[in-house]
Amino acid sequence: MNIIETQNLTKSYAGVTAVSGLNLHVPKGTVYGFLGPNGAGKSTTMKMLLGLTRPTSGSFVMDGKRFPGGRTQILKEVGSLIEAPAFYGNLTGEENLEIIRRILGLPKSSVSEALELTGLTQYRRRLAKKYSLGMKQRLGLAGALIGRPPILILDEPTNGLDPVGIHEIRTLIRSLPRQFGCTVFVSSHLLSEIELMADSIGILNHGRLLFEGTMDGLKSGAAAQGYPTDNLEDTFLALIDADNRQRGGIR
Amino acid sequence: MSLALECRKIKRTGLTAAFLGGELLASAVPVLNMAYRPELYLHREASPVNVLLGAGWQMMVMLNVLLIVTGACALYHMEYADNAILKMCSLPVKESGLFFGKAFLIAGLSAVFLLMEAVSVAGCAVRWFGTGREVCGEVLRNLGFSLLLLLPAILLALLIASVCKNMWIALGVGVIGVLIATMIPAGQFAASLFPFALPFRTLSGLEQETIRGYVTAGAAETAAISVLEIILLRVRRAFQ
To answer: What is the ipTM of this complex?
Structure first.
């Protein structure tokens, strides 16, 4: 069963089509890796799913609720981290989460749980503007995870983290469906990262979905088309390159 | 809910202290006027409240409106500086709810400074003009009138701050608006309906018909700016 489904989702800005006729199918209780080079339209898609930007055409359904009618209901069930972490610099990490907790009407314990999950407990009373980049990213993740929402939308969540932090967050994301039964829709431009945590993937280039399915499906499909399959990064690059050539040499 | 959240968000911004400082300064205007040059005012024929407001209201209201403009810029800068508004918009709250929460917060702070100024004016009337408690009614009527006429200025300052992500642009536009408002002559009714100019009007010397005109204009501008903000937010979302 798919928890997120988009139907011909399209977003155009002043003559540029950022996302074109996107049909995504994100299975419930899995980690879905959303891959694509910079500027492929990943963040735009995620922003549309969160109602931060209005689709030019098309629609989507999240957990049975259709956008835009069910926007408020959808947002109650979605935890998100989009682009850079967003927070109030004049408040501490704990106070930032407290604001989110109050909006979502969650129990008080959810703040300490989210801090614990992301390893920020000992820094909870530090002002968010004084956090390091990695700690800000963790705070953003804590804001997404608070209250254990059934759907998580994470845009490049390991940005700015050191290798240890990347490993911790990757392990955390990997464990979320099993631990809390949630679905994670995570974007990255690093195939190696997605390979380690995703159950299924979607590859986006210039706003178009080139592939959707499992990692094995990607390998077999690529082999059938004569692309390299020894290394998934090579497969990804070959797919993107072929699409760019087909589109007239756009890179 | 929105107001409670806005109150939490302003922690450590210095906004409350800035408003308190500005309020004390504005409230000191009639006191200083009467303390240093009482001979200019004591023999006038108008009511003590009219004399006191006529002498210091322009200065007091300019401080009030500048505080409102600065406060609005600070409130939205807090949202834009570290992109907190993006997080807020991805939560089940309406962006217009944030706007009205901020409007209630500034309106509340403005009501406090108007009250302090009213106490100051009433105190001066009793101390220097020897009036009794009857002055309270006149001062309170002026306070209510001023608060109503401040609402469009509050909403316009917030609208400008919400549209401009760069705080300095919003502050510049707001300050220019206040300066333009100070240049509008009192006799020109149509020009004095400019939202930043409305609060400069007091009840003194106004006819019932004119008072009704200002009250209607204040209410209409409040509603119009609110609707305009909602439309602007929708348009911005469509183009983001």
So the answer is: 0.87
Other C-beta atoms closer than 10 Å to the C-beta of A142 total: 28
Q: Give yes or no for a contact between B143 and B120, defined as CB atoms under 8 angstroms apart.
A: no
Classify A1-77+150-217 by CATH class: alpha beta
Output phi, psi for A156, to 5 deg. 45, 65
- Indicate the residue of A47, A95, A143 with minimum beta-carbon distance to B87: A143
Contact A88, A99 (CB under 8 A): yes
- Omega of the bond leading into A27 within 30 degrees of 0 (cis): no
* Interchain CB distance below 8 Å, A47 and B13: no
> Sign (positive/negative) of CA torsion A234, A235, A236, A240?
positive
Nearest to A82 among B4, B78, B90 (CB): B90
Is the separation of the CB atoms in A173 and A31 below 8 Å?
Answer: yes
Query: What residue segments make up the domains of chain A, in order of their start?
Result: 1-77+150-217, 86-148
Per-residue pLDDT of chain B (240 residues; tens, 9 = 90+): 688 899 999 999 999 999 999 999 999 999 999 999 888 888 888 888 889 988 889 999 999 999 999 999 999 999 999 999 999 999 998 889 999 999 999 999 999 989 999 999 999 999 888 887 778 888 889 899 999 999 999 999 999 999 999 999 999 999 999 999 988 887 788 888 999 999 998 887 788 888 999 999 999 999 999 999 999 998 888 777
**Which residues partner with A13 through β-bridges?**
A16
Residues 6+ apart with CB under 8 A from B204: B46, B47, B49, B50, B53, B54, B142
With an 8 Å Cβ cutoff, is A72 touching chain B? Answer: yes
Asked if the C-beta of B17 comes within 8 angstroms of chain A's C-beta atoms, the answer is no
Calpha distance A104→A75 (Å, rounded): 9
For residue A59, the cross-strand partners are A7
Question: In this complex, do B83 and A89 lie within 8 Å of one another by their Cβ atoms?
Answer: no
Shortest alpha-carbon distance between residue B221 and chain A (Å)? 29
- Nearest by Cα to A74 from A151, A5, A184, A180: A151
A50 contacts A153 by C-beta, under 8 angstroms: yes
Instruction: Name the residue type at position A118.
Output: T
